């Protein structure tokens, strides 16, 4: 197996089209097909299903790509570093993210990227997860940090970590001194939550139903930062990812249980999109940040 085999595999995996992949690689389609066949023979398994009108990845192909993508991106970064100084590289990146990740994690990743590539431009859009899926599909976003898309989506999803949602209250709240709180204990508690259009809210509603609790939701917001500020200034409680809450003397962050709300954020991008070396570097920065947050 040689590096070119993996490059060819990656191109077909991104486009799911042998003709477009061959054009991108500047080789003939027959050459590309032959190289993929060589790789499949060496691995002893099919990587693509070519039986229908459209090319699809097999389970083995999905597994190979999930492990291979980070390695190829690091190789590209090393080659790029040798070829051009970082301050001469220009590019633009359009990132979509939900409000939870746009309070601390995403700004930190953008800062790291801009420190490395001062000449690039980054646009960050804070959106609901459903809107992110639509904008990735239409090509209006290059990359996103959000949640797993529905089955059958034309998007790649790379899980980053599992995180618990925590109860956040002010220091004078009746639950502030608790070490843990059961979801059932939030019955009729005055709360601020995200709106019902958010996947996180749907997860919380399922947990409340499971616990037989009906909180008194007196405020619904579409962003996490104002939720935290509202909790700070009132008697309201909120349920927020711990990674979105900065250390503060006037707030308490308390684990929830029975059940514990858990979600899995990840990176998303369109299966047919071409990712530049800078975008691949950005993805690696996000992976490192996620490793710290996990």
Automatic annotation (TrEMBL):
All residue ranges annotated as the HTH lysR-type domain in the record: 1-58
Sorted UniProt keywords: DNA-binding, Transcription, Transcription regulation
GO cellular component, one term: protein-DNA complex
Residue stretches spanning the membrane: none
InterPro entries (alphabetical): LysR_HTH_N, LysR_subst-bd, WH-like_DNA-bd_sf, WH_DNA-bd_sf
Domain of life: Bacteria
GO MF annotation list: DNA binding; DNA-binding transcription factor activity
SUPFAM superfamilies assigned to the protein according to its UniProt record, in alphabetical order: Periplasmic binding protein-like II, Winged helix' DNA-binding domain
Stated family: Belongs to the LysR transcriptional regulatory family.
Protein name: LysR family transcriptional regulator
Organism: Ramlibacter agri
């Amino acid at each position: 197996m040689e590096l070119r085999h993996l490059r060819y595999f990656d191109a077909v995996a991104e486009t799911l089209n042998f003709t477009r992949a061959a054009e991108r690689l500047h080789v003939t389609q027959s050459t590309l097909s032959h190289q993929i066949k060589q790789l499949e023979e060496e691995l002893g398994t099919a990587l693509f299903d070519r039986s229908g009108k459209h090319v699809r990845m097999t389970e083995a192909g999905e597994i190979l790509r999930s492990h291979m993508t980070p390695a190829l991106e690091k190789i590209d970064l090393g080659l790029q570093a040798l070829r051009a100084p970082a301050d001469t590289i220009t590019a633009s990146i359009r990132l979509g993210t939900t409000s939870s990740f746009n309070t601390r994690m995403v700004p930190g990743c953008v800062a790291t990227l801009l420190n490395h590539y001062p000449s690039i431009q980054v646009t960050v859009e804070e959106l609901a997860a459903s809107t992110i899926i639509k904008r990735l599909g239409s090509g209006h976003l290059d990359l996103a940090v959000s949640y797993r898309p529905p089955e059958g989506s034309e998007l790649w999803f790379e899980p980053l970590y599992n995180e618990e949602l925590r109860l956040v209250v002010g220091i004078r709240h009746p639950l502030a001194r608790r070490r843990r709180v059961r979801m059932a204990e939030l019955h009729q508690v005055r709360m601020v939550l995200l709106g019902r259009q958010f996947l996180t809210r749907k997860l919380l509603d399922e947990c409340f139903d499971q616990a037989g609790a009906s909180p008194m939701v007196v405020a619904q917001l579409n962003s996490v930062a104002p939720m935290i500020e509202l909790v700070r200034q009132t008697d309201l409680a909120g349920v927020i990812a711990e990674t979105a809450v900065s250390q503060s003397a006037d707030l308490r962050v308390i684990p929830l249980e029975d059940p514990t709300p858990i979600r899995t954020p990840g990176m998303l991008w369109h299966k047919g999109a071409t990712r530049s070396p800078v975008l691949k570097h950005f993805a690696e920065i996000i992976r490192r940040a996620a490793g710290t947050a996990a």
